[in-house]
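Following up on my earlier thread - several people asked me to post the actual chain instead of describing it. Fair enough. Here it is, all 338 residues.
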Amino acid sequence: MQIVSYKSPLTLGNIGEPELPAESARIRMMANGVCATDVKMVDGLGFQPKLPFVPGHEPAGIVEDVNSDNESFRALIGKPVVIHPHVACGVCENCVSGHENICLSMKASYGINTNGGLQEYLAIAAKNLITLPGNITLDEGALAGGVVAVPLHGLKQLGSLLDRKVLVLGAGGLALAAIQIIKAMGGEAIVVGRKESKLDLAQSVGADVVINSTKTDYVEEVKKLTGPGVHAAVDLAGDNNEVPRLLQTVRRGGKVLIIGYSKKTFEGAYSRLALDGISIVGTRSYTRNDLRESVNMISRKLVKPIITETFPLEMANKALDLVRTGQSLGRVLVHPNE
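Reply from S.P.:
Thanks for posting it. Predicted structure:
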């Protein structure tokens, strides 16, 4: 399924089976998560790669072939894998310090600037494959990256969450994973959302408190609950209007973690950053180590990705519509080889 023109539905096409460069693997795509980044791209509001383009950056599948003499890579043939979508240079300052997710010379990001997972087959560097244990489905494996590893990478930047109060703004798929990670790290999760159905689901996966922002002022409610404020607030909604309000919810020395995003700007309480030692922390994607940790957490039942709908490849536009309109409670997936 390709983007042929922005602000138009994806088009079903045939681009042929991908070539297999050296040290690469050919994957039969079995599952690919659909998220707001995909919607923004299709709608011409996010990344704008050269068209036509195949989106999909949350992929998992079965390894069919490997073009390498490396025995560990050859051993992947026939195995279920989740794909780390970023091919970093490996030698820049950020890469060598463990931050390959923000590589200064990123070679490729599948589903972002290089054809991604909404196709039957994908060829990718074998080093980017993480095998899935037998107790994880391919659907869950596909979400180990874009749903679990994304908030995991960000939350780790907050330091220890043991006995810490963390506000989560948003109650979608990433938020449901973030809640479970916060609980696994020993923290308390306060979730702010707009739909009762999503807040009920947030509570079912471990949220300690849920607040409907359409019914009450969540800033005042959080202050009542926490006194000096939360230790950290996590923006998963990507609403620029809410960032100044999140700054009001954190205590001195607290942090606001930005995971959701848009092209819009925000104005905040500038003085609080200096006078109260507040930090605004940005986070992008995840590393291969984050992905391994996520797979481990799912395998150990510490986190369970919430999947509510799946579609065959030709119905990818329906999956996008569900995300675009916020109708899906959990995560939506496409099965390219169904």
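The chain has a mean pLDDT of 95. That should answer part of your original question.
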